[in-house]
Amino acid sequence: MIQQYLRIKAEYQDAFLFFRLGDFYEMFFEDATRASQELEITLTAREGGGEEKIPMCGVPYHAAPNYIEQLIAKGFKVAICEQTEDPKQAKGVVRREVVQLITPGTMMEGKGMLEKENIFIASVTPFEEKKFGLAYNDLSTGELKATLIHGDFNELVNEIASLGAKEVVIPSDLDSALQKALKERINAALSYEDEQTAGENFAELLQPVQHQQELAETVSRLLHYLFRTQKRSLDHLQPVSFYESTQYMKIDYHSKRNLELTETVRSKGKKGSLLWLLDETKTAMGGRILKQWIDRPLLSRSAIEQRQELVSLMIQNFFEREELRERLKEVYDLERLAGRVAFGNVTARDLLQLKRSLQQVPAIMGVVKSMGGGAAELAEKMDPCTDLEELLEKAIGDSPPLSIKEGNMIRDGYHAELDQYRDASRNGKNWIAQLEKQERERTGIKSLKIGYNRIFGYYLEITRPNLHLLQDDRYERKQTLSNAERFITPELKEKEALILQADEKCVQLEYDLFLALRETVKSYIPRLQQLARVISELDALQCFATISEQRRYTKPTFSEDMVLHIHNGRHPVVEKVMQAQEYVPNSCTMNSEREILLITGPNMSGKSTFMRQIALTSILAQIGCFVPAEEAVLPIFDKVFTRIGAADDLISGQSTFMVEMLEAKNAIDHATKNSLILFDEIGRGTSTYDGMALAQSIIEYIHDEIGAKTIFSTHYHELTALGGKLDRVKNVHVSAVEQSGKVVFLHKVKEGAADKSYGIHVAQLAELPEKLINRANEILSDLEEGKPEIRQENPPAVQKQSDRVHEEIDALDEQLSFFADKKPAKKNENSKDHKIIEELKSLSVLEMTPLEALNALYSIQKKIKS
Fold first, then answer.
1. What strand order describes the sheet that includes 449-453?
2. Annotated binding-site residue? 601
3. Lowest mean pLDDT among 77-81, 553-557, 613-617, 808-812
4. Which DSSP symbol is given to 583?
5. Average per-residue pLDDT in the chain?
6. What is the SS3 assignment for 185?
7. Do residues 424 and 373 share a domain?
8. Number of domains the chain is built from
9. 735 labeled binding residue
């Protein structure tokens, strides 16, 4: 048996092998050791034929799904190895084989599957330089998409990260550097598949891309992997849908994180994100498509306006929309139900959910049609699948059990033979009940009862105190209990055979009928998937309408000349979180004369919020939703780049400043004049002058070379001078006032630069010690009067810089003295050389900042060179 285990395990080295032994799945050797740690189960050992014992652990087969899910959640794979022959008929070791490989990207059921989130598995194929094929699939819904990525490897990584793919299938010979980058930068399992030829089985699925060789290879790689690992029907897979990244607004992974589109930076959870705000969907399908729309805003103006029209119709038809929402509540996850039908793990309860969902469709079609316009056109695309609903109504009972092997699933009247067996079973049980009544009367034992168990079948049970009343020779003792005796009679055994035979045939026939019904339902999968697509779109659109009406959003219009004008705009999420508090709205105008807004103001005043709300307003508009403003005219942005937040990338060992520079580089390399760039305090991760120089250089480069709409917040007030030097740079600030020595943030964006930073006031709000605050005010006052005060004992860094200045002074003094000595003339106190030396010696570096001291030194060096 262990040899059999090792042979099978050799083919699944990267997975835990759940090896079926009777009522348990067992693991051996290294699998057992690791599983005992990961699952916190007992590790035992078994004799292996040699001196050493084999590590071993196991889990009961009925509890296995929970353990498998735990391993998958940790990024592992699990190969399910079943007994494929009856142990009673086996000659030697029972035949076993792997029936499925469960991986992070191929989960079909489990508590870890969130109903409103896709579980994507992706495949990658590299082609010529800077070109990659990417395909991805959600096995639970059958969705299959593909695209070509033109650009460097970062473009590919960003696309996969944005998808949130749980697993990536790659060729085994993929460049090791690329493999390393995938492992480090994407939280996904890596799997290998080298087969990428399009087999006959895939012809229909590949039809849309059959003439695009690169895409066909990439999709084929993924399909080969899925069929090889799942080893079952995948009839629910949909034909591949090709898309181009140029169809959608490009938002890189870091920008999505910074803008908190689907999860927050701090909690990594949905609450507090744009998705959390918008999600008023009533179905799981609607929730998933909403997330996809947020991830991929549209670039086509006509497509955006088509969604806007439907949102407007739903806002205008309040009562119809409310009825639609109520109906959608009763619609189950049609996409995943179809997937379970194809996969072969659908239950009678699932089919009951499918029937109840289909029963809602005619009413949904009616209410949507009544709205008119584009809504009526959308309703026409809905297929109610009436024939399937009628079939399920006839076939499935109202309260089926969870298992499909227990019977009681099929409704009476569906199948004549089944009805006959049921009649025999039910009449037999009625006869049993009648017999119990007769025997009580005949024996006078009122407590006599007829029971049943699997070992003895039906029996008559009499308690010990009543045994003396039994005078019947037909009673044959079968079992003795502590307080009762159990008997059988010939007529009871005869009836038992009839009843049990009917029950067994009933259960088997119901199982066979259910499998046949499942095959019939499988033929409806394409129609169900089309219906699911329309319902999910309706759900997302009603969600936009509901939110837009509740939160007083406005329908935006789009400009042809990249003009942005938002009147009294609001940050959608912050506004909701503030609830009863009044949110301070802000306007923003950007055009050909105002391409870059340089925004200054104190910390906590709302600079970052203002910047984010511009980006979120644009994203909301381009997914077809209304926007939080009194009026909005917007350009259609092709890309959004952000650098907001100062979290170090500790995992990859990158500092705040390096992250700043990499994200800035990404924006500068890929932005166009139709892009939106948000830079929040670029340069703060390094020294003041370095940071200021970089910030100014970045602004100038964007102004001169790119021309993208840019909002740049900074604490470097010196940069506000750019507003007068660069034509398209304008200064704005977030206002604040000082009252009774404390700062009050007005959160209002106004024209011009801020006059103060209020840094110490913010520290006061944070309740730093009063003594510390007072000392900071003293130092600030001295600095503002031009009298920098530095303690006698210099900090190490200052002292080191001071020492360096003095060393350079001494070296120059010696150098000048040497040249002076070479001159024949006697030293003259009024000579230029002497004056320079005296000037050097008079430098009081302790009264200067290190930078001031070095600048003074270098000015003297210029004199020397002259």
1. 449-453, 457-463, 484-488, 476-480
2. yes
3. 808-812
4. P
5. 88
6. helix
7. no
8. 6
9. no
Q: Phi, psi at residue 552, to the nearest 5°?
A: 60, 50
**Annotated binding-site residue? 172:** no
Give the 3-state secondary structure of residue 135: strand
Size of the chain, expressed as the number of residues it contains: 866
Spell out the SS3 assignment of 411-454. CCCCCHHHHHHHHHHHHHHHHHHHHHHHHHHHHCCCCCEEEEEC
Residues 81 and 145 in one domain: no
Instruction: Tell the residue number behind the tokens 């390094």, with chain if given.
Output: 686
- pLDDT of 794 reads 47
- Strands of the sheet containing 250-251, edge to edge, are 250-251, 639-643, 676-680, 709-713, 596-600, 729-739, 742-751
Q: How confident is the model at residue 654 (pLDDT cuts 50, 70, 90)?
A: low
- pLDDT 10s digits, 494-535: 888 888 888 889 999 999 999 999 999 999 999 999 999 999
Range of the domain at 149: 126-247
Residue 606 marked ligand-binding: yes
Residue (of 671, 837, 659, 684) closest to 757 by Cα position: 684
Select from 429, 349, 331, 338 the least CA-distant residue to 397.
349
What pLDDT score does 804 carry? 60
Kindly list the distances between the CA atom of residue 851 and the CA atoms of 596, 802, 844, in Å, as whole numbers in the listed order: 31, 10, 13
Q: What is the pLDDT of residue 803?
A: 61
> 721-735: per-residue pLDDT in tens?
899 899 999 999 998
- Same-domain pairing of 371 and 426: no
Q: Are residues 67 and 88 in the same domain?
A: yes
